Amino acid sequence: MTPEFILGCIILIAGVIAAGFPREKTYLSRLINLEIPAFGLLLIMLAYDETLALMTFIGVTAISTFVLVRVIERRDAG
Amino acid sequence: MDAATYSIGLVVVAIGLIVGFAAIIREKDDLHRILLTDLAEVLALVVIALVATDLAEALILPGLVVGISELMAVSEVYIAKEGLKAPEGPPFHIEVMDSAPGILALILVAYGIVLSGFTGGAVAAVGAVFYFMCRGHAEQFELIETVSGYAWAIWIAAFFVFMFLPAYWFFGVMMAGGAILIKVMAKMSLVGTMRRGGPNV
């Protein structure tokens, strides 16, 4: 059991709680809190040396954030 | 990694799934539910990552592709269902959006080409999306479609090289890696054009 794995598990649980039940229930705060469990997942992937999966996850997360921001800005505008 | 680590990981994911799905059940707003779907996807990926072999890497890639396409489809359906319009007034603009895209897109695309394959395509696409988002776009969609169609054909040809000319496997690897890089990058960079149409945004 490596330190990355332990830290990843702790961050994952904290992030799931933060994203599931955010203190301020706005779309943007929930979107930002979603980055916390993603970071936990990245640390777990790092512990298992899954380089390709890690790099692809970073790339795809950036694009999915873009897609979500597009929906949120339309929702808040109208 | 030993069996104890795997068990602990599974317990952590189980707790996360319970909390996550409890949040989805208690949520009434549709857009909040879409955001929580993203959370469920992360938890599903952790389950796959815990397998901890090459199999995990092979399974995570299609998981990510399905995740992003599902997210895009659901968000489009949501926009259509609620009849949401693009925001009025001048688009969001800050100083760094003028200066950063060139160098940042260059670094990301160059690194993506070094990585090659699906991963490289995703990394390079992030650079292209960022560039299109900040600088606007005036590309020809037909050209992108044609390039990505040829890339797909080269990718298939690489598999025929593996099957019929196994001695040239390295040539096949290079063909497949380069073609899938172009294919993924061309398709994903179209996401960057979703925001606002036309040049000079």
- Overall pLDDT metric of chain B: 85
Task: Determine the fraction of residues in helical runs of chain B and give it as a percent range.
Answer: over 70%
What's the overall geometry of chain A?
Answer: flat
What is the mean predicted local confidence, pLDDT of chain A?
Answer: 89
Unreliable segments of chain A (pLDDT under 50, ≥5 consecutive)?
Answer: none
The number of distinct helices of chain B, counting runs of at least 4 residues, comes to 7
Give the helix/strand class of chain B.
Answer: mainly alpha
Give the class of chain A from helix and strand content and strand pairing. Answer: mainly alpha
- Estimated radius of gyration of chain B: 20 Å
Relative strand content of chain A: under 5%
N-to-C SSE string of chain B, H for helix and E for strand: HHHHHHH
Description:
The complex is a heterodimer of chains A (78) and B (201). Helices cover 83% and strands 0% of the residues of chain A. Chain A is built from 4 helices and no strands. The radius of gyration of chain A is 14 Å and the shape is flat. The mean pLDDT of chain A is 89. Chain B has 2 domains: 3-82, no CATH class; 96-193, no CATH class. In chain B, helix 6 runs antiparallel to helix 7. The mean pLDDT of chain B is 85. At the A-B interface, helix 1, helix 2, helix 3 and helix 4 of A face helix 1, helix 2, helix 3 and helix 5 of B.
